[in-house]
Design a protein that fits this description.
Layout: H1 2-6, E1 10-14, E2 16-17, H2 20-29, E3 36-37, E4 54-58, H3 80-93, E5 100-105, H4 116-127, E6 131-138, E7 148-155, H5 172-179, H6 183-186, H7 219-227, H8 231-243, E8 247-258, E9 261-269, E10 288-293, E11 296-301, H9 304-310, H10 323-331, H11 336-351, E12 358-361
Parallel strand pairs: 1-12, 2-3, 4-5, 4-12
Antiparallel strand pairs: 5-7, 6-7, 8-9, 8-10, 10-11
C-alpha cells in the first residue's frame, strides 16, 4: 500500500516482504516489478540495485502496539526494522545510501521502553548523517477509519524552508519523544510541516456493500453482541434506535477488567468511523458492522473489499479471494492517501520530484 500511495511517478528498484500472501498480492497488482519474498535479515546488500531516492520501511507493529506485547525493538517481529537498517548501513558504505528514508509504525514506537526504542532509531539515523523528524497522522483525516500512525522522515538533503515549521501533526506524543532525546540528537531533528490534511468527505456508511449483497448474522448472534455490551455502549444502541434514522456503527469485541474480573465486552461507535483495521489474528477480533434502521438492529462482519476501501484502495485492486486473507493484507498495511499526502507535500518537494522520476526501495 506504500507503493500504491507513492504512485505512478515512482519506480520501484526493490521491494521485500516475508509474507507469501502479501507477496502474491503485490505481484498481482504490480506485475513485473521487482519483489523479493523472504526475511529482510537474509537480504544481501548487493541484491539492491543502484541508488534509491527513498527507502520506505513499514515493519511489523505488534511489538510497539498497545494490542501487542510491547517488546519493543528487542521483539523478533519489529526487529525487522533493524534488519532494514543493516541494509541502509551497507549501502552507505558503498556510497549508495538513499537520499531519504521513511519509517512507518504505530505511535507506540515513540514511547516503547520509556522512549529507548525511538532513541535507538534516532541514534542510528544520526550516526549515518541523516536529519529526521516525526509526524503523527491519523488516517481518519482522509478515510473513515481511526488509524493513528507515526511517520519518521529522514534525509541528508537540505530541506526547503517551506517544508519546515509548526504543524498540527506534531502531536503530544511526537513532542514528548523529541523532548526526551539527548541534546546531541535534538541537533539532528527537523520539524517537518506538510500542512494540514484535506477535510475528509466520506463516512463508514459510504464505503459499504449494499445490504442485499452481504451475509448478515443470525438474530441470536446479534442478540449475543447486544448482551455483551456494558451500559454505556448499550445506551448508544438505544439512542440509535430512538432516532429512527439509519445509523451504521463499528463493533469490536474486547476483554475488559471490571471489579477485578475479566469480561468479554462488545463496544460500538456511531461516529462515522471504523475502528483501526487489524489482521484477523491481531489483538482484537475481526471488526463487526452494526446497522440500526427503523428500530431494527442487524450485524455482520466487515468484508475484505470494505476493508480495502477503508485503506484507500480502489475497487480494482486485486485482493485474496478469502475474506480472512484479504483482511490480513489490508490490516497490516499503511493507508494509501496518507502515503500520497506525505509524498506530495514533503518527499517529492524534498527530492525534486517535479523535475524527474523518483526511485524507491521498500
Amino acid at each position: 500500500m506504500a507503493r500504491a500511495g507513492l504512485g505512478a511517478r515512482w519506480t520501484t528498484l526493490f521491494a521485500n516482504d516475508f509474507d507469501a500472501l502479501k507477496a502474491r498480492t503485490y505481484r498481482a497488482n504490480w506485475p513485473g516489478e521487482p519483489l523479493h519474498e523472504g526475511d529482510v535479515w537474509k537480504i544481501a546488500p548487493d541484491m539492491l540495485p543502484g541508488r534509491a531516492d527513498l527507502a520506505w520501511a513499514s515493519s511489523p507493529c505488534q511489538d510497539f502496539s498497545l494490542a501487542g506485547g510491547r517488546a519493543g525493538l528487542s521483539g523478533g517481529r519489529s526487529s525487522a526494522l533493524f534488519g532494514f537498517w543493516r541494509l541502509i548501513e551497507a549501502l552507505d558504505e558503498q556510497g549508495r545510501a538513499p537520499r531519504a528514508l521513511a519509517v512507518e509504525n504505530v505511535v507506540g514506537l515513540l514511547s516503547s521502553h520509556g522512549g529507548a526504542d525511538f532513541r535507538a532509531l534516532a541514534e542510528a539515523l544520526a550516526a549515518r548523517g541523516y536529519r529526521f523528524g516525526a509526524l503523527e497522522i491519523d488516517a481518519a483525516a482522509f478515510l473513515p477509519q481511526s488509524r493513528p500512525r507515526v511517520f519518521v522522515l529522514a534525509t541528508r538533503e537540505t530541506p526547503p524552508a517551506g517544508l519546515l515549521g509548526e504543524s498540527p501533526l506534531h502531536s503530544p506524543a511526537v513532542r514528548a519523544a523529541h523532548a526526551a532525546l539527548p541534546q546531541a540528537l535534538k541537533a539532528h531533528w527537523l520539524w517537518w510541516s506538510p500542512g494540514a490534511p484535506p477535510r475528509r468527505n466520506t463516512a463508514l456508511a459510504d464505503l459499504l456493500e449494499p445490504d442485499g449483497a452481504v451475509a448478515w448474522h443470525r438474530p441470536e448472534q446479534t442478540r449475543r453482541l447486544l448482551w455483551l455490551m456494558a451500559p454505556l455502549h448499550a445506551a448508544k444502541v438505544d439512542a440509535a434506535r430512538a432516532s429512527g434514522a439509519r445509523q451504521v456503527g463499528a463493533v469490536f469485541r474486547r476483554t475488559r477488567v471490571e471489579n477485578g474480573r475479566r469480561f468479554q465486552r462488545a463496544e460500538v461507535r456511531f461516529d462515522g468511523l471504523a475502528g483501526c483495521l487489524r489482521t484477523p489474528g491481531g489483538g482484537s477480533s475481526r471488526q463487526i458492522l452494526m446497522v440500526v434502521d427503523g428500530g431494527q438492529v442487524r450485524t455482520r462482519l466487515l468484508t475484505g473489499r470494505e476493508g480495502a476501501r477503508l485503506m484507500g484502495l480502489p475497487d480494482d485492486y486485486q485482493l485474496p479471494k478469502a475474506a480472512t486473507g484479504a483482511l490480513q493484507v489490508v490490516g497490516d498495511g499503511v493507508a494509501v492517501p496518507v502515503v500520497r499526502f506525505l509524498a506530495e507535500r514533503l518527499i517529492e518537494p524534498l527530492l525534486g520530484g517535479a523535475e524527474h522520476s523518483l526511485r524507491a526501495i521498500a
